[in-house]
Amino acid sequence: MQLFPCPFCGPREESEFHHGGEAGNLRPDGAEVTAERWAGYLHMRDNPKGATREIWVHMTCGEFFAMSRDSVNHKVSGSSVLGEAEHGR
Amino acid sequence: MTRHYSALSLFKEGIAGQTGWVKAWRSPDPKPRYDAIIIGGGGHGLATAYYLAENHGVTNVALLEKGWIGGGNTGRNTTVVRSNYFYPESAAIYGLAHSLYKTLSKDLNYNVMFSARGILTLAHSEAAMETAARSVNAIQVNGIDCELFSVEDVCRVVPIYNFSPDARFPVYGGTWQPSGGTARHDAVAWGYARAASRLGVDIIQNCEITDFIIEGGRCRGVVTSRGAIRAERTGMAVAGHSSVLAAKAGFRLPVNSYALQACVSEPVKPIIDTVVISPDTGVYVSQSDKGELVIGGALDRIPSYGQRGNLPVLEGVVAGMLEMFPIFGQLKMMRQWAGIVDVVPDSSPIIGESPLPGLFLNCGWGTGGFKAIPAGGTLLAHLLATGQHHDISRPFDLDRFARGRLIDEAAGSGIAH
After folding, report:
1. Least Cα separation, residue A46 to chain B (angstroms)
2. Packing angle, helices B43-56 and B373-386, rounded to 10
3. In this predicted complex, what is the ipTM?
4. Which residue among B252, B306, B401 places its CB closest to the CB of A74?
5. What CA–CA distance (Å, rounded) separates A74 from A87?
6. Which of A55, B137, B149, B205 has the fewest CB atoms within 10 Å, i.e. the most exposed one?
7. Do B257 and A49 make contact, defined as CB atoms within 8 angstroms?
8. Is A29 helix (H, G, I), strand (E, B) or coil?
9. pLDDT for residue A31
């Protein structure tokens, strides 16, 4: 069982966490958004091999946070509360 | 020199001391230019190579594989073949694959050991039985063989299931596809490779793509660890690594890569002669011809390119299997592994020209690529040979994500991939 670092609760078992998507995938704003732009936001992904930065939720405390991780060897390099980059404002 | 496989050639070679066999496929050095390039030496890529040569007469083809052929998901799946899907588009594509599997051994002159032993999907509640009845109706309307099973039917087919009154997952019935079954996964890769090589395709292993050659806004070939190779049409069938190649070509795909685990037990005497799927435990089991129980489950819940898998899902799979079959409690597990699968939001494949003209896609099969190999090969070969969609592949074009015309088999068939 791998331990993930929740910024609020500390290291906890991986099965307490849920993957919430790639960090920085910001919802398009405004009335004039093309179908391609919506499809990009809803469906298209970088899906990187190697270093990733993702949104996760710790289901036991209910908090969302950002985690930096390697998608090949699964090593976690850090986690942090959500900042401006993830909120887009 | 013995090229054709038959009982007679086996007998003759036995007499001659097994000295006349030739290698199943050639391993030539890559040429600088081909009519078409196929990236990925798994089942889908090898089938594409074979159908390009066999159906379209295009034989000046290079198949490039970064490792060894059949070493990725083709060698890591649980060998199940079925076509019991909800939507007509899916029934057409998986039905095509299923019908080709039935004659594949003969077509390739290679025994792929396709065994139509039937596939049983269990229903564990009254509500699940209602869904099963709806599903059976839809599948029958699609022209695919499928029956609704009662508890007695299930009892007849898998008497070793846990039918005790206090079972955690009691059986209310299920759906049954009698023509579904299993095939020998390595043989599918090797059979296609041998047949394609004999038709003139160059199968080049240990050849990794490092970049695409893009000129005038079109894909004109690839740069590889063994030099530049040019072609006007390139197809890619690389499953969980589709996003990695797409990034090199300058576009993104609606793909998330996950590890999908499986495991096998020690070999035992024949005890289960069908494929049993339990949606509620998320576990399915069949028995190989060697006697090993082949056990699969749901995806790992963590995006991954590591071909190992994490412990929580494996624990859940083993626990689920023991709920279904307490009789397996003393079995020793022999091997566990994972493959990296390309999961798409609507759990349906992506086939068609990519945003980079001249580069064609065959990906997004998620957890169910093995069963579709002959269809994926037929359809990608059609695209590479003609530049146009086959009628069966058109609904699966990448453009469906912007158009909103998804083929949502996760909802339709209740499958996880």
Report:
1. 6
2. 50
3. 0.95
4. B306
5. 25
6. B137
7. yes
8. coil
9. 85
- Binary contact (A38, B241; C-beta < 8 A): no
pLDDT digits (tens, 9 = 90+) for B210-234: 999 999 999 999 999 999 999 999 9
Contact by Cβ (8 Å): A87, B320: no
Report the chain A residue with the minimal C-alpha distance to residue B405.
A39
- Cα–Cα distance measured from residue B311 to residue B308, given in angstroms and rounded to the nearest whole number: 10
Q: Which of B401, B405, B406, B408 to mutate to test the interface with A (most CBs of A within 10 A)?
A: B401
The boundaries of the domain holding residue B381 are 26-109+185-254+346-412
Are A46 and B306 in contact (CB < 8 Å)?
no
Residues B248, B282 within the same domain:
no
**Are the Cβ atoms of A72 and B305 closer than 8 angstroms?**
yes
Query: Are residues B210 and B80 part of one domain?
Result: yes
Q: Is the pTM of this model over 0.80?
A: yes
Identify the CA nearest to B180 among candidates B134, B128, B114: B114
For the domain that residue B287 is a member of, what is the CATH number? 3.30.9.10
Q: Where residue B412 falls among pLDDT bands split at 50, 70, 90?
A: confident
- Helix H, strand E, coil C: the string for chain B is CECCCCHHHHHHHHHCCCCCECCCCCCCCCCCECCEEEECCCHHHHHHHHHHHHHHCCCCEEEECCCCCCCCHHHCCCCEECCCCCCHHHHHHHHHHHHHHHCHHHHHCCCCCCECCCEEEEECCHHHHHHHHHHHHHHHHCCCCCEEECHHHHHHHCCCCCCCCCCCCCCCEEEEECCCEECCHHHHHHHHHHHHHHCCCEEECCCCEEEEEEECCEEEEEEECCEEEECCEEEECCHHHHHHHHHHHCCCECCEEEEEEEEEEEECCCCCCCEEEECCCCEEEEECCCCEEEEEEEEEEEECCCCCCCHHHHHHHHHHHHHHCHHHHHCCEEEEEEEEEEECCCCCCEEEECCCCCEEEEECCHHHCHHHHHHHHHHHHHHHHHCCCCCCCHHHCCCHHHHCCCCCHHHHCCCCC
